[in-house]
Amino acid sequence: MLQSIYPDCVSRDASNDILRFEVPVELERPMDVFVTRSGNADLQEHHLSLSSLPPIFLQIVLPPAYPLRAGPEIVSFYVSGSWVPRSGRLLKKLRGMWEPGDAVLYTWVEWIHSADFLNSMEIIRDGALRCVMGRETGH
């Protein structure tokens, strides 16, 4: 079902039943983004105005009891460019959205795609997105 709604960001690996999501983050309007690049002893800050952000990648397995008694299992999570700090917090929030009987995947994709999750990540201050870029990390 999700593949028909989001053909560009959802695919299924038939060999292992993994759903793969590459969810672009689209901002409602252009937003000021301040990127601080960490490395060596120098901190460099760059100012950008962006209307989209790098995608978030998820690999999910739906257990047999989904959605009635079990939530989706996130087997892989990756943020391109590691621009989301404390990405474990984002994973916890995604997992916390599921309730028994709730087919939550559409909600997850919309929450990420619409950039609504940014407010709960505490990286927007004074109407601008602020992030520190370091090495890319996956979970």
Order of helices and strands: HEEEEHHHEE
Q: Characterize the main sheet.
A: 6 strands, mixed
Q: What percent of residues adopt helix (DSSP H or I)?
A: 10-25%
Point out poorly predicted stretches: 135-139
Shape: elongated
Q: What is the count of structural domains?
A: 1
What is the total tally of β strands?
6
- The CATH class is Alpha Beta
- Using only C-alpha atoms, the radius of gyration works out to 16 Å
Assigned CATH architecture = Roll
Our estimate of the beta-strand percent is 35-45%
Give the structural class. Answer: alpha+beta
Give the rounded overall mean pLDDT.
84
Alpha carbon gap, first and last residue: 26 Å
Number of helices: 4
CATH topology term = Ubiquitin Conjugating Enzyme
Walk me through the structure.
With 139 residues, this protein is an alpha+beta fold. It has one domain: Ubiquitin Conjugating Enzyme, CATH 3.10.110. Helices cover 20% and strands 44% of the residues. It contains four helices and six strands. Strands 1, 2, 3, 4, 5 and 6 form a six-stranded mixed sheet that branches. The longest helix has 11 residues. The C terminus is likely disordered.
Give me some keywords for this one.
139 residues; alpha+beta; Ubiquitin Conjugating Enzyme; elongated
